[in-house]
Each structure stands twice: as C-alpha cells, then as structure tokens.
Amino acid sequence: MRPHILLRYIGLVMLLNAAFILLAYLISLYHQDNGQQPLLYTFIITMLMGIFPLVFVPKTFNLSNKESYFVVVLSWIISCFIGMLPFLLWGGEFTITKAFFESVSGYTTTGASILNNVEALPKGLLFWRSSMHWIGGIGIVVFMLVVLPSLGNAQMTLSKMEISPLAQENFKFRTRKMLNIILFVYIGLTLTQTILLMIVGMDLFDAINHAFATIATGGFSTKNTSIAHFNSLPIEIVIMVFMFLSGIHFGLLYTTIAFKKFNIFNSPIVRYYFFASIIGITLVAINLHTSTYDNWADCFRYSAFQVLSLSTTTGFANADSSVWPSFSVAIIIFFTIQCACSGSTSGGMKLDRMVIFFQTLKSQILKIQHPQAIIPVRLGKAIISDDIVNSVILFIVLYMVILLISTLILAAMGIDLLTGFSASAATMGNAGPGFGLVGSMSNFSTLPESALMVLSFDMLLGRLEIFGLIMLFLIKSWK
Model confidence over 57-106: pLDDT tens digits? Predict the structure, then answer.
C-alpha cells in the first residue's frame, strides 16, 4: 500500500469537487446572497487538499486492486465530509450530524433531507446541493477518469472498482469508450431535460437544478413541497420521462441513439422494467380510486409520478404518498427496494438482480421436477454463469439482512416500525423519502441524530453496493 499515491488520486477528486464549489460560489456572488463566504472558504480548503498531493507526489499510473479500492471508497467518504462544510459554515438548521447527512444524501443521490425550509437556503447552496447529486450520479471517480487525460492502467483499475459489476457485464466497449459513453448520455440527458423544463414553464435556475437531480436520480428540489410546488402536469410529464430514461442502462441508451436502432426493448431487463412500472402504476391508481381520489386522471397522474420516482430512486414528489392506503404503500416500498436497471444512475438492489433471481428460482423448480436435466439460468438468449448467480443471491440476502438490522436499530431508538423500515429501505436504496415520519412531504429532521448516522451509513452502503464499503474494513486480509 502506497499512501502517497492514494493521496494523489484523492486529490484529483478534490479538484473536481472544487470546480463545482467554485461554480456554486459564483452563483451565490451573482445573487449577492449569504452563501458566499461558506462556499468560498470550502473552495479554498478543497483546492488546497487537491493541489498539495499533485505538487509533491509524482505521477503513477499503476494501481493495485487494494489501492484502487481505497481510492474509490475514501474518495466518496472524504467528498461527503467536504460537501458538508458549506452547510455547516452557513448554519441555519444544520448541526454537524445533519450537515453530514445532507451531504451523504447528496453525493449518494438519495435525496433525503433534514431541511424543514429548503427555500431558506441561498441559491449558491441550493446549486451545491444539486451539484452533489450530479457528481455522485455519474460516480465521483468515473467523472474524474473521464475529464482527465489517459491515466494508463489506473483508469481501467479504478473504473472497475467504481462501476457496478452488473453494469460492466452489459458494456461491450473498452474502458475509455465506456466512460465516454456514460458521460455523453449523462450530459445529453441533462441538457435536453433542462431545455424542456424551461419550455414548459420553469426558470433557468430551477430547470438546471431539477435536471441535475432527475438525471442523477437524486431528488433534491429547490422547493419545500418538491414538484408539487409547481402544480404543473407538463412539468411532471417531462420529469417522469427523464426519470424513466435515467433508470435504463446508459449503454443501451447510447447504442439506440448512436446506431439508430430501437434496441432498448430487445433487453429482457428493460422489458421487465417497463411492464413492472406499468403494472405498479395501474395497481396503485386503482387502489387510490377506491380510497383517496375520485378522478381517474388524478389517480394515474399521482400514481405514475410516485411509482416512477421511487422505482428509479429519484425521490421527487407531487403528492403526499404517506397518507395513501396500505396496499399502495406496500407496492411503492417494493419498488423502492427493487429499483431500476444496472448501468443507470438508479440505486438500490437493481432490477437486473431481481430478474436473475426469478430466473434462478424458475431453474431450480425445473431441476426438482427433472433431476437429470441440465437447466442453465438464462437472461434472454444469454446463459448466466454460476459465479454471477451466486453473487446475485449473496447480494440480495446481504441487502435484506442489512435492511433488517437497520430497521431493528431504529426501532430500538423508539422509531415506529413503518418509519424505521421505510427510512432504512429508502436510504439503502438511495431513494429518498419513505413513509410515516419521513414521508414524501416530510423530511428526516424529526429523527434523532444517532438515527441519522445509521442512515448515512446505509446510504454509503447502498451507493457502493455493500461490498465496496465492507472491503475497506477487510483490507488487511487481502493477499
């Protein structure tokens, strides 16, 4: 292990953060709001943290797997500490714990907030909240790898540590090409949505912030009541379309656009994603019509938005879903745990794993019926290897165990079961709002600070897909 080399690569990540903090400062300066000093001080600190390792540590392009894990995980953790500084220096509702929670929620694209009055924040800090989403959505290290010149073998090693193994399986390109595709789709979706939001009535500032949050499937809004503030069906339709697209594997989106082939629905994963969303929306709408809304149009409007928002882990809200009937709540919690496709900005368990799990279950049932038969697990025409099947099953079991443990810890703190379970599911899945005290029109400010620390850890576990963070604690056992 070479600590000085780790510092150099983490320093590059700090410079990336510093660039966005500077942009937030300039916005604050333009509006002459009281976010200027917190952002300026944070920019200076972050710049110094980034520059010193570059000055004193020579370039090194070869990284071991152990060093790469440290770079990726520590980059996320240190970025979260840097991200909290503007909030902490600004004051208001922020304590150290709450500022850290807000920062972790931003970078992990969770969108859970402790703020009772989001609109009290100066515009510079509002932009910084959204920027954390946008940096974290594509992946802090991935962003750094794309914007810098070739880093040799380090680029390949770091990208493997940052990008989900399931997502890598579906990219059929070299490392550099894969990273460029991710950035191309990411920026393209962001610019397109920004323009469309302005066309349907948002001002430039709100359009940029909400596009950042949508494409990153984050959910931080500039308004206290999220998307419900605008009470605009055209705005909601634009956001729903881009939430859905941001939940699809970016490689599939790229090949569809670049090669002019409508091949998205050739993927069994995307087909499941589409039809599961339709079924979920329909079931919730029917349930709402029997209990909450009289108008079918309202039922489908609110159902579609909330189901897509939680299934893609975006977390925007156009209605208070915490008062919806239990059946609707149960369906939305299921989508919060399942989430969208690997290779997208969505968090959670990932829909790919669920499909592989169901196919494995089907294969095992057939083997019981036909003991002598060889029945491989298939995904479309592709045969899934036993290694992938085993890793998927292990991940799902570990995910549910952590979710259970987190719920029990919150229950021991006196938090009711619905709030505790949904908060744990929402933070592990990087989805944002839950139910009960942390519903779509509420926030996490009523939870004790000890609970916020547990949920912050859940958010990091979810974003780093569990093993990324766990391996940091097992680093001494590596050969």
Answer: 777 666 776 777 788 888 889 999 999 999 999 999 999 999 999 999 99
Cβ atoms of residues 35 and 122 within 8 Å: yes
Q: Which residue has the tokens 């208070």?
A: 320
Residue 176 has pLDDT above 70, yes or no: no
In a domain, 120, yes or no: yes
Q: Which residues contact 266 (CB under 8 A, 6 or more apart)?
A: 380
Rounded Cα distance between 457 and 312, Å, is 21
What domain count does the chain have? 1
Cβ within 8 Å of residue 473, ≥6 positions away: none
285: in domain: no
Identify whether 284 is part of a domain: no
Question: What's the pTM value of the predicted model, to 2 decimals?
Answer: 0.91
Please name which of 106, 267, 250, 108 lies closest in space to residue 188, comparing C-alpha atoms. Answer: 250
- How far is Cα 106 from Cα 262, in angstroms, rounded to an integer? 33
Which domain does 48 fall in, by range? 1-162
Q: Is residue 56 part of a domain?
A: yes
pLDDT digits (tens, 9 = 90+) for 343-366: 888 888 888 888 889 989 988 898
